[in-house]
Amino acid sequence: MNEALSASTGESNVRQYQSDALTISGLPQTLNLDAAALAGCADMVGGPATIQCYSGRHVREVRHWRGVRVTQLLDLAGMQALPIGRRKQSVVAVVAKDAYRCLFTWHELYNTAVGSGVILVVEKDGVAFDPDLGGLHLVSLRDLKLGPRQALAVSGIEVRQWQA
Question: SUPFAM superfamilies this protein is in (predicted)?
């Protein structure tokens, strides 16, 4: 759950933000993917999962989900075409409509077990683009607590280079 949104408005008001499309920017190809394209890419299935915030507060249970790996979408936009030095300096922000951002490094996504569990969920418990989750929902399934790096109503993925 987007922590800022839940703290100020309560989980039930999340529905004011909805997304069933995604723009990927900062790579050789800017991609705009609609609901049909995202559903067509969604080849990952799993469950159950318990979503908890960092404090340990229970947020929700998910019995079954279907989604697409963020790395798969990044590769469609040309991540692998970048020189390796540039990839290693990349920071990836998954952006929700309420401006909440979940951050990942290239190393984390492509060189750790975390990356294979960073999923854009397109179907939860049989409901496609669940309106209670704002439609497109990000979850990082290999994090110790799933709440801090989850985002509801995801609308974009931005790739930036780390500047020291």
Answer: Oxidoreductase molybdopterin-binding domain (SSF56524)
